[in-house]
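2024-03-11 09:14:02 DEBUG pipeline.ingest accepted 1 chain
2024-03-11 09:14:02 DEBUG pipeline.ingest length=116
2024-03-11 09:14:03 DEBUG pipeline.predict start
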Amino acid sequence: MNKLILGIFAVFISFQSIGAIETTNKGNITKLFAYDDYGSLEGKEGADIAVWFNTGISGCEHGVWLSPSAPGYKMIASFLLTAYTSKQQVRFQIYDDKVWAGTGNKLCQIDAIRFE
């Protein structure tokens, strides 16, 4: 019975580590690309936004990206533009298992942007 409980616990832990929300380094956005159709979704306004930023996270080194499927897409997009144009330092909370398919760069999907 103990082996069964230990096995279930190990499986649960492995599923938790597959995809997690992580927090990036604090820094400046170096490049910001907004697409008109790449990543667009039927019935949603906008398309993918790619953000080049030194995250400090392995597997997401090059930056982050935002999908129009995100519930806060318009608000986060406006925050991205504000951070980029004002050269304000930010941190991101990202999904480390959702890597952007747009380029060979490793960009992870944004969960939140934080002005600190």
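2024-03-11 09:14:41 DEBUG pipeline.report Residues 43 and 61 are 32 Å apart (CA to CA).
2024-03-11 09:14:41 DEBUG pipeline.predict end
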